[in-house]
Amino acid sequence: MAELQTLARPYAKAVFELGREGGNLKDWSARLATIAAAVQVPETAALIGHPRVTRQMLSAALGKSLAASLGHDGQGLAQLLAENGRLTLAPLIAEQFEALRAAAESRVDVEITSAAEVSGAQRSALGAALGERLHREVAIDWKTDESLIAGAVVRAGDLVIDGSVSGELARMKSALTQ
Length: 178
Description:
Elements lengths: L1 H21 L2 H16 L1 H6 L7 H29 L6 H15 L2 E8 L5 H15 L2 E8 L7 E5 L2 E4 L2 H13 L1
Parallel strand pairs: 1-2
Antiparallel strand pairs: 1-3, 3-4
Helix pairs in contact: 1-2, 1-5, 2-4, 2-5
């Protein structure tokens, strides 16, 4: 998987620079999401790497089918990926692009999983505290998982804050068995 991430990185960086220079990062997000979704459709995925479908055929078909939603620049990217045999990287390219965009916009996506539903006031307070701690605008995806027993787990990129009872029990078990 790390190898695929490495292959996707130059494409993501190039598209990010193109979007930043053009001031249209949001448009590129939509284009990349469209390409990523298209290559994950089972019928399209079956054509990628099929011995009877050349890269040029795949490029032309993809360019035609996505022309309306991608525009000229997005169509060019889809064709470039097809001709270089990199279409399967489209979801990873989109993911890396979004990380670059979030960093540039001082925004971070946060996932908070709590043991019970959290009230609106608590959500607002926690969102404000996280924004202050991370020095960024936060976009929170709230989830519930009763197996946490109580508390919550916060994930923001590489940062993980496990304040759940089940996490504490796991840490205690690990400490006792060592």
